[in-house]
Amino acid sequence: MLMREGELEFDFVDVLSERLDEKQKSKPHGLQLVDFIIEEPKRILMVEIKDPSCKPKGNDEKALAGINSQRQQFVTKINNGELINHELVPKARDSYTYLHLMERCDKPILYVFVLGAEQLVIDIPNFLVEFKRELLARLRQEAEQPWARRYVSDCLVLTEKTWLETFPQYTLARIS
């Protein structure tokens, strides 16, 4: 099944996939949900996508300046922990809660964060390792004590290139 988030199009072949944050669907008030849920035979993938590398809407200087400003704000959110603490972890927790209440979390859950990083000025190899470490630590402990239940078995932080290395069975293409 083809699923698209911004300019990134995924093909989840031979698995049950669902867009969880569908705008037209009614959802519980206050829950922040991941983009996609992929149900494989032995695990569930919760996939969240952030793509600050998408092209600007328009070719004028104002559009280019706007997208560059958004990219810089995104890098700031990475550096100050806001992306993990206020976006990624709440989406994982809320999506797990949703799946649990719908009796759909009977398999281990892998949380996958896909970053469209082509246009970002960051050291990708070091970033991926460190960001994954910080994300997993926060998924396991958000308050003074760690969660008693590890609702996410592990997490991955991927770019378009590392997605294809990790999940060759699910194609990913940038559609502009």
Distance between the termini: 19 Å
Portion in beta strands = 15-25%
Number of strands: 8
Query: How would you sum up the major sheet?
Result: 5 strands, mixed
Q: So what's the oligomer here? A: single chain
Order of helices and strands: EEEEEHHEHEHE
Counting helices, strands and paired strands, the structural category is alpha/beta
State the domain count. Answer: 1
Strand order of the largest sheet: 3-4-5-6-7
Would you write up a description of this structure?
The protein is α/β, with parallel strands linked by helices. The protein has one domain. The protein has 4 helices and 8 strands. The model has no long low-confidence stretch (mean pLDDT 91).
Which helices and strands appear, and what pairs or packs with what?
Blueprint: E1 2-5, E2 8-11, E3 16-19, E4 36-39, E5 44-50, H1 61-79, H2 82-101, E6 109-115, H3 124-140, E7 154-158, H4 160-166, E8 171-174
Parallel strand pairs: 5-6, 6-7
Antiparallel strand pairs: 1-2, 2-8, 3-4, 4-5
Helix pairs in contact: 2-3
What characteristics describe this protein?
176 residues, alpha/beta, five-stranded mixed β-sheet, 4 helices, globular
